[in-house]
C-alpha cells in the first residue's frame, strides 16, 4: 500500500481575511502580494507579513531570516504549511523563530476550500521565542 500525500493545486492561495486583516491593521506590509515574487529582490522594512507561494517556501524563509538578521526588517510573520520535516523549517527555528501552529485546517479565499495540510505562523524578530498551538491569528503576539 502506498502512502497518501495531500497536495494542493497551484500556489496562488489568497490569505484568509481574518489573518491578513489582523496583521494589516497592525501596520505590517506584504512583500509577497498574490501571484508576485518581487519581494525576494527588494529589501523589507519594518514589519512584514508574508503568505509565500508554498512551492518556494525555502526561498522566502531564507529571505525572511536574512532581512531580520540584517536589521532591515524588525519583525516578519510568515504563513506557512507546517512542514516540520523540511530543511527550511529547521532553518527558521534555528534562526530563533517562534512557531504558532494553527488548530484545524485553514480556509483560503476564492472558494478554494480548506487546505490539505496544517498551517502555522512563524515569527522572526520575536524576543520571546515560543512554540504553541493557537485557534486564531489574534492569539499571536504582534
Salient structural properties:
142 residues; alpha/beta; five-stranded mixed β-sheet; two-stranded antiparallel sheet
Describe this structure in a few short sentences.
By secondary structure, this protein is an alpha/beta fold. It is 22% helix and 23% strand. The protein contains three helices and seven strands, in the order αβαβαβββββ.
Describe the secondary structure blueprint for this structure.
Elements lengths: L16 H9 L20 E5 L6 H14 L2 E9 L5 H8 L3 E5 L4 E2 L4 E2 L4 E6 L6 E4 L8
Parallel strand pairs: 1-2, 3-7
Antiparallel strand pairs: 2-6, 3-6, 4-5
Order of helices and strands: HEHEHEEEEE
State the assembly state of the protein chains.
Answer: single chain
The termini sit apart by 45 Å
Q: What form results from the Cα inertia axes?
A: globular
Number of domains: 1
How big is the Rg? Answer: 14 Å
The strands making up the biggest β-sheet line up spatially as 1-2-6-3-7
Biggest β-sheet strands, sense, barrel: 5 strands, mixed
The count of helical stretches stands at 3
The helix content is: 10-25%
Low-confidence region ranges: 1-8
Estimate the strand proportion.
15-25%
DSSP E strands, number? 7
What would you say this structure looks like, in words?
It is built from 3 helices and 7 strands, in the order αβαβαβββββ. With 142 residues, the chain is an alpha/beta fold. The chain has one domain (17-139). The strands form 2 sheets. A 5-stranded mixed β-sheet has the order 1-2-6-3-7, sandwiched between helices. A two-stranded antiparallel ribbon has the order 4-5. Helix 2 links the parallel strand 1 and strand 2 (73-81). The radius of gyration is 14 Å and the shape is globular. It starts with 16 loop residues before the first helix and ends in an 8-residue tail after the last strand. 32% of the residues are buried.
